[in-house]
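ugh ok fine here u go
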Amino acid sequence: MKQFIEAEFSKTLANFNRMAVDEGLKESIARVVEMCLASLRADGKILFAGNGGSAADAQHWAGELVSRFYYDRPGLPAIALTTDTSILTAIGNDYGYDYTFARQVEALGRRGDVLVVISTSGNSPNILRAAQAAKDRGLSVIGFTGQSGGKLAPLSDLCFCIPSDETPRIQEGHEFIGHLLCALIEEGMYPRAAD
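structure:
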């Protein structure tokens, strides 16, 4: 057991060390923050979608923006498309599971909004359909995937491809970047007063 624990720590640290020296990744984080700030300043909103553990990330990040991250400030308009069971089951029943997020993007998304889509493989059909629906309506698409990028990368304006093929490492990278985005968006919209 101890060897397994040590190996998991080592893999996670190696993954984060690769991310930490990736200047392109840092530039992409800054660009995504600017895209989100531009949308919010123009009365837009940020939509989030993902499956399984990535659905939890979608809800988590939307919650951080609507409520608070590091400090108290006005709420920011963010919606997780993963939370309304009546909508999800109606769309799944009427159109099929592949349309669970695309239909919501069609209903809620407006030109200038941002859609954040999370798929460790980059190939989840419902995520790909959501990304295409967003592109068709003039939303910016931010992808979160593993290192291959899958089919999601070319549908994204910017795509965070975590440098791993292991789902836990990919999800750990997603969570870190998601937190960075929430912190920087919060600071950009409502700068904390100097102490």
